[in-house]
Specification:
The structure holds 2 protein chains of 2 kinds. Chain A is α+β, with helices and mostly antiparallel strands. Chain A has 21 helices and 40 strands. Classes of the chains: A alpha+beta, B alpha+beta.
């Protein structure tokens, strides 16, 4: 919202206070100022000139050759093309070196062979209007050589206020409201403004019937004899300063009153309001109204209409109808000033995407007491310009409104406690009175009378008054007070501690990069995963089509990152700790905390070691993670119910210790999905993914952390290779070796897996380093021999054999 | 040379003298010539090897000496041998010193030869800054809380004094979750503030808590706007908690973030869940005369804050007459961008390893 410094000065004395000062004061006490700009700065560069002599241009019929006195030495020779230039006129001269709007630089030039030393300007060339019917004829009394801005009092600054910072202050949506703030801040009186309606004739008033409680007050007033003439300079320049294009006196005054008092209003052509009078009612679904911007608006039952009888003539509080707009030939007007239900206006305006200066104000909840005041203001301003304007009939002022004025009890003690500032009751009273509140003693406290204009929304409880006192007192005057109290360690948040350890391990020794993703999953990913019929939490209004689903699992967020990253790097190592949501009908969704990991490497070479796969490496990472968290060892099994991203034949389920709970899955990527994700051709990759439940890790059994004595006797190492039927798992082989050790096996490491002719069809060989040791003696050859014999028996039982090299 | 060449020559002289009494023979002559050659050698030529030879010569030809002189010749020759061994030790010491010196010179070493690359992982910059703040606040006795990203309308709006008709609901550009009529209405939380009321219901005042987390706004994306970003809520509820406490806490927070004293200012700001509400500006930590970060104003709008609205305390089951509090909402994503000089907010969640590897 743009605020004009000169406009403010109509309401409060601003002498000695610059626009920049005001911007700072408002920022610190009232609202955020986004910037201050000089209004038409070139008005201070152009000068008042006196046309001393005018001759016809020797070489062009339509041009004049003028000598213009600009108060500096000899009169300047200027060529002018305007038909109305003549000797004796006071005009605006832009001398060489001046820059006019549109970056138009005035230079000495030759026009048809005659030298011209500047330009005589029109109002439009100065940015002050749209008329272009000649040069601007200034009042004769202006001093020659004076700067135009100063001579006409047009010097102004535009203060831009952040609208968002005043959504709660309907009173600040007009210059008088801002001026009232400055009056309080600067301790200067607000200039009086007579807002009583002038006397009216006794004719027939406009009939008004309100049929909806979305209109609490409606004032209609017949105005006769007004003409849509050009607005005077003072009005045009103020409107231009705040970014409004001047149209004609009637439109401009209507806008002026809105921007001055914050109360929108509307002028109808009286001929369009028939005998049935004005009816304020809700629209009927499907009804149509062509608004002033010539757009057909489809209405809904929640929209509020102003009607001529039954025929809609305006969208209440938003925009007038094209059909009832004031025609040029009319002098019979009906002025509407009303109070509308803020949410109704806001919803209609939002739905139609039609935001106007009026709707912006009505949706803030305006004070119904402003209604007659704004009407009076408009009429008085109009009569000042056109004294012949008459009010033929009394105003119709109907509705069920209540004043928002109220009395709130304020305890000085409460102000001092909440602000932490040492303000006595007198100081508090002084501030409130400056702000326009009435203050009376009320026992130990104060009874504060809130005027209606502040009471519609912003001020309703004691704490609101504390803010009023604080902001005028200035928060910068409040001393800082360190928080004091008994310090107790905050309760331990086990999950947060766990997540930190997970992050540290994965970003540390595991060398993964932490990613934080959007919670929305694109439908393209959902389709690739075939999850379109799986219920997801979905938003109604996604940022783009196809991005409405919220992830159930964190892993899916990492999938779309594979292809672009893999294209740039041979190895992709990413992890994310985050939340997934599963919808629960009628209630809050189930929240899951998860760790997701992805490891992608170039496709595996034929001669790679048996455990040189991304899946095995990622399992190793997860095992290391689980160990580092101080939990019992990982137990791996074939995963039965595989996730949509997991390779159905290469998926492992993770459990911890002997617990039943599934803690996570580590799997190769679903092969079809890898292709869908674009991981083919030169970036064909060996990819493994993991999902680990943070919730399950929290519930997992910690490993016993106890010292075990260091071995006193040396261990013995033997290598054994078991050739077993292929369907026998490594887990079975491992168990067989452990059984064979009868407690002597202290270490088992698989170092080779191979198949081939030597092993026989349908069999594979698993080769292990076995460490044997006893706590009380050094093992001898006989122990090893007995161990190998037992292994041999176990191997046979498993349908295979112990291989001897 | 540590041994005395003169004494060696004297020893040789005594052996030569003993040789003079020996009967003349080819062997005697040969030995004399050899011994005399040793005597004639310059000092520096008397190395351990030469001395060893000089001691070995008479010992190897002992039979040419008369019987009575053999004892004396033997002892003299042994004395020369001792001198040889001593010289040898000195020479070995010197050789070792030379070898070490040569090794230490580092000839052929190139300090700029790149070492083999040791890959490493990384913590997300948001995690890093969040942890710094968590550590700062926990060190002052604050609790860290978590809340759901998919939030109920009640906690996100109603409990925060944002009624259904409140324009703030529009300005927050809410993502509404699709629910059936009559079901609990859900939103993607638009701020971390809903955890305020959740915290009040869980914790007994007095308490101090922060809530870092992800929030969502239905906004068009550009270099400074994201529909998903991170915030950190702060909430203190206690007896007589005032604006003065808020100011002190915010100054402590800024000292923690920037590592030095930062001037702040509070100015009015409107948020329905605080009263009075403020915008907190910090004096731009990057300039003194205005820069692009502070848009030439020397102030950075850093966080909204305020005194908890009595209606919010009531929604949390806390009596606003007994207890007061303050709350703030720090834009973590923005802070991360300021901290690391990130110019485009969209990098934060894009998952480009070239970005993540930098932290």
């Amino acid at each position: 919202m743009k605020i004009s410094y000169r406009w403010l000065a109509r309401h409060v004395d601003l002498s000695g206070t610059s626009a920049v000062d005001i911007a700072r004061e408002l920022t610190l006490s009232t609202a955020e100022v986004e910037g201050v700009e000089s209004f038409l700065p070139h008005l201070c560069d152009v000068t008042v000139g006196h046309v001393v002599q005018r001759e016809k241009h020797p070489d062009a019929d339509k041009l004049s050759l003028c000598r213009v006195d600009v108060g500096q030495g000899e009169p300047l020779q200027i060529v002018c093309g305007a038909p109305n230039v003549r000797a004796g006129l006071k005009v605006v001269v832009a001398t060489a070196g001046t820059t006019l709007p549109g970056d138009f630089k005035i230079k000495k030039s030759k026009i048809r062979g005659v030298e011209s030393n500047g330009m005589i300007c029109s109002e439009r060339e100065l940015g002050l209007g749209v008329e272009h019917d000649g040069i601007w004829e200034l009042p004769a009394g202006l001093a020659v050589g004076a700067r135009l801005g100063a001579a006409l009092g047009l010097e102004d600054w535009v203060i831009e206020i952040d609208n968002k910072s005043v959504t709660h202050r309907p009173d600040l949506w007009g210059h008088r409201g801002i001026a009232a703030e400055l009056a309080a801040i600067l301790r200067r009186p607000l200039k009086p403004l007579d807002l009583a309606l002038p006397a009216t004739g006794g004719g027939a008033s406009v009939g008004v019937r309100i049929e909806s409680d979305a209109c609490s007050r409606y004032l209609a007033l017949r105005v006769e004899g007004a003409r849509a003439t050009r607005s005077p300079l003072w009005l045009k320049s103020l409107l231009l300063a705040v970014g409004q294009r001047p149209i004609d006196l009637l439109v401009d005054l209507s806008n002026f009153v809105m921007l001055d008092l914050g109360q929108p209003n509307h002028l109808f052509d009286a001929r369009k309001i028939g005998a049935q009078g004005i009816v304020v009612r809700k629209a009927r679904a499907g009804e149509v109204l062509k608004t002033l911007d010539e757009v057909e608006r489809k209405l809904e039952a929640s929209d509020l209409l102003i009607c001529n009888g039954d025929e809609p003539v305006a969208l209440a509080g938003i925009m007038g109808g094209e059909g009832s707009k004031v025609a040029e030939d009319t002098s019979q007007l009906v002025l509407e000033v009303a109070a509308f239900h803020a949410p109704t206006v806001r919803r209609t305006s939002a739905r139609l995407g039609l935001r106007t200066d009026a709707s912006a104000r009505f949706e803030k909840t305006l004070d119904p007491e402003l209604v007659p005041r704004a009407a009076a203001h408009l009429v008085r301003l109009l009569q000042a310009e056109q004294p012949e304007v008459k009010l033929a009939a009394p105003a119709t002022d109907v509705g069920q409104w209540t004043s928002a004025a109220k009395t709130i009890r304020l305890r000085g003690e409460r102000v001092r406690m909440l602000l932490g500032a040492d303000l006595d009751d007198a100081a508090i009273t002084d501030i409130l009175v400056r702000l326009g509140f009435g203050v009376a003693k009320d026992g130990e406290g104060l009874a504060v009378r809130v005027p209606s204009i502040r009471g519609t929304k912003d001020i309703s409880i004691e704490q609101d008054l504390v803010e009023e006192v604080g902001r005028i007192y200035r928060y910068g005057n409040i001393p800082e007070i360190p928080l004091a109290g008994i310090l107790v360690p905050p309760p331990r948040d086990e999950r947060r501690r766990l997540v930190r350890r997970i992050e540290d391990r994965l970003a540390g020794s595991a060398r993964f990069h932490q990613q934080i993703s959007y919670s929305f999953v694109p439908d393209t990913t959902i389709l690739k995963l075939g999850l379109q019929s799986t219920p997801h939490v979905e938003v109604q209004n996604p940022i783009t089509e196809g991005a409405s689903r919220v992830r159930r699992s964190v892993v899916v967020s990492l999938l779309p990152l594979l292809e672009p990253n893999r294209r740039r790097a041979a190895e992709v190592r990413l992890f994310e700790v985050g939340k997934g949501y599963e919808p629960v009908g009628g209630a809050e969704p189930t929240e899951r905390h998860e760790v997701a990991l992805v490891l992608a490497r170039p496709a595996r070479k034929a001669n790679a070691r048996f455990d040189d796969t991304s899946l095995a490496l990622l399992q190793g990472v997860v095992e290391d993670l689980v160990r580092s968290l101080g939990l019992e060892a990982c137990t791996w099994s074939r995963c039965e119910a595989v996730a949509s991203w997991a390779h159905p034949g290469r998926a492992t389920a993770l459990r911890i210790g002997s617990q039943e709970t599934l803690v996570g899955e580590v799997a190769a990527i679903e092969p079809g999905l890898a292709r869908e994700l674009g991981l083919a051709g030169e970036i064909e990759s060996d990819i493994a993914l993991a999902r680990v439940s943070v919730d399950a890790l929290l519930g997992a059994t910690p490993r016993a952390r106890r010292y075990s004595p260091l071995p006193q006797f040396p261990a013995t190492r033997v290598d054994v290779a078991l050739a077993l039927p292929s369907e026998r798992s490594a887990g079975e082989a491992k168990a067989a070796l452990e059984r064979s050790g009868k407690g002597l096996v202290s270490g088992l490491e698989l170092f080779d897996v191979f198949t081939g002719e030597r092993i026989g069809a349908g069999r594979r060989s698993l080769a292990w380093h076995v460490t044997l040791s006893a706590p009380d003696r050094t093992l001898n050859e006989a122990d090893v021999k007995k161990f190998l014999e037992r292994v041999e028996r176990e191997a046979v039982q498993l349908g295979g054999e112990l291989r001897r090299e | 040379m540590t041994h005395d060449a003169a004494s060696v020559r004297a020893l040789l002289g005594e052996i030569l003298a003993a040789l003079a009494s020996a009967s003349e023979s080819d062997e005697t002559r040969s030995l004399r010539q050899r011994l005399e050659r040793f005597v004639a050698l310059p000092d520096e030529a008397l190395t351990s090897a030469v001395l060893l030879e000089a001691s070995a010569a008479p010992l190897g030809a002992m039979r040419v000496f008369p019987k009575e002189a053999r004892g004396l010749v033997g002892s003299k020759a042994n004395a020369i041998k001792q001198a040889a061994l001593a010289a040898l030790a000195v020479e070995e010491q010197a050789a070792l010193a030379r070898a070490l010196a040569a090794e230490r010179s580092g000839a052929g070493f190139d300090a700029t030869l790149p070492p083999p690359r040791q890959a490493c992982g990384s913590l997300h910059p948001i995690t890093q800054v969040t942890r710094e703040l968590e550590d700062l606040f926990t060190s002052m006795g604050w609790t860290i809380l978590d809340g759901p990203e998919v939030e109920t309308e009640h906690f996100n709006f109603d409990a925060l004094n944002i009624s259904p008709d409140h324009p703030a609901r529009d300005t927050m550009d809410t993502f509404w979750v699709r629910t059936a009529p009559g079901e609990t209405r859900l939103v993607m939380r638009t701020h971390t503030s809903p955890v305020q009321v959740r915290a009040m219901r869980r914790l007994q005042p007095p308490f101090r808590a922060i809530v870092p987390g992800k929030v969502f706004r239905n906004e068009a994306l550009d270099a400074s706007h994201e529909h998903t970003f991170h915030q950190m809520e702060g909430l203190v509820v206690g007896k007589h908690v005032s604006v003065g406490h808020l100011i002190a806490a915010m100054k402590t927070l800024l000292r923690g973030i920037f590592g030095r004293e930062i001037e702040i200012r509070l100015r009015p700001g409107y948020f329905p869940f605080v009263e009075p509400g403020f915008e907190l500006d910090a004096r731009c930590p990057f300039c003194t005369e205005g820069c692009s970060v502070c848009k030439r104003s020397t102030w950075i709008e850093l966080l909204p804050c305020g005194m908890v609205h009595p209606n919010v305390l009531k929604a949390g089951g806390i009596d606003p007459e007994q207890w007061t509090g303050f709350a703030f909402g720090l834009g973590l994503s923005r802070l991360v961008m300021l901290r690391f000089g990130i110019d485009d907010v969209r990098h934060l969640l894009a998952g480009d390893m070239r970005f993540l590897e930098q932290f």
